[in-house]
Amino acid sequence: QVQLVESGGGLVQPGGSLRLSCAASGFIASSIGMNWYRQAPGRARELVAAISGPGGSTIYADSVKGRFTISRDNAKNTVYLGMNMMKPEDTAVYYCVIGGYRGPGTQVTVSS
After folding, report:
1. What pLDDT was estimated at residue 82?
2. CA–CA dist 9, 19 (Å, integer)
3. What's the pLDDT tens digit per position in 46-101?
4. Is the pLDDT score of 31 beyond 90?
5. 55 vs 4, more confident
6. How big is the CA angle at 13 (ends 73 and 64), to the nearest 5 degrees?
7. How confident is the model at residue 1 (pLDDT cuts 50, 70, 90)?
């Protein structure tokens, strides 16, 4: 059974940091791309960051460049999203997409 489970979300103050994790089970994700998306109420879904399979090359949305870092641990079938210097506009549900499968998401709220 294929399953993606995100964790690490929560409430953080502006300027703070969080690290999200997405663990995949039921299939081997080491050779395929992994992606983080986010969606805030009333806004379109946004691709936040992506990391390729074998080469591990990365891309980022302009809105998060220099603040967020995507990484992967193939041995753990897991992708991470490190988020620094967070802003209120980063508030959204964050979810991972791997191999056409999507996790349920984790809420991230940036507020003082």
Report:
1. 98
2. 8
3. 999 999 987 789 999 999 999 999 999 999 999 999 999 999 999 999 999 998 89
4. no
5. 4
6. 50
7. confident
β-strand partners of 78: 23, 73
Task: Round to whole Å and give the CA distance between 32 and 88.
Answer: 32
* Distant-in-sequence, close-in-space partners of 4: CB < 8 Å, separation ≥ 6: 22, 23, 24, 25, 96, 98, 101, 102, 103, 104
What would the 3-class secondary structure string for the chain be? CCEEEEECCEEECCCCCEEEEEEEECCCCCCCCEEEEEECCCCCCEEEEEECCCCCCEEECCCCCCCEEEEEEHHHCEEEEEECCCCHHHCEEEEEEECCEECCCEEEEECC
In the numeric block, which tokens belong to residue 36? 């983080």
